[in-house]
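Homework help board

Subject: predicted structure for assignment chain

Our instructor gave us this sequence and asked us to write out the predicted structure in token form, then describe one feature. I got the tokens but I'm not sure how to describe them. Can anyone check?
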Amino acid sequence: MDSVLSLISGHYNYWMGIVLMMLGLYVAISRGNLIKKVVGLNLFQTSVFMLYISMGKVTGGTAPILTGKPDTIYSNPLPHVLILTAIVVGISTTALALALIVRIREAYGTIEEDEIAAIERQFEFPKDRVA
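My token output:
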């Protein structure tokens, strides 16, 4: 039992990343509201960011500034740089998604998936008709 607790407590940030990832995936899949889907995807994306940053942490490591000491342990800055880029891309993708949701709301009068699908089915042409 102690080994299980030490495994969980020793990797707390990984477990929280996994919990947030599954929560975001659940919200994105289970909800029909387009805004809630975007929020779920953002939660999923944030959990991935946390996971990558957690992997970049080196216990006892310092910033990669050369000091001349041969036994210095350095942290890898690459995950942090990649996540900064991913955050910018994520914000712009979220802005685009919200702009599309506004246009969908103007066109259909709703942002619920099932209502949009019902409206689309009303205007569907029969398959045997040629346009």
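Reply (TA_rk): Your tokens look well-formed. For the description, you could write something like this. The chain is about 70% helix and 0% strand. That's the kind of observation they're looking for.
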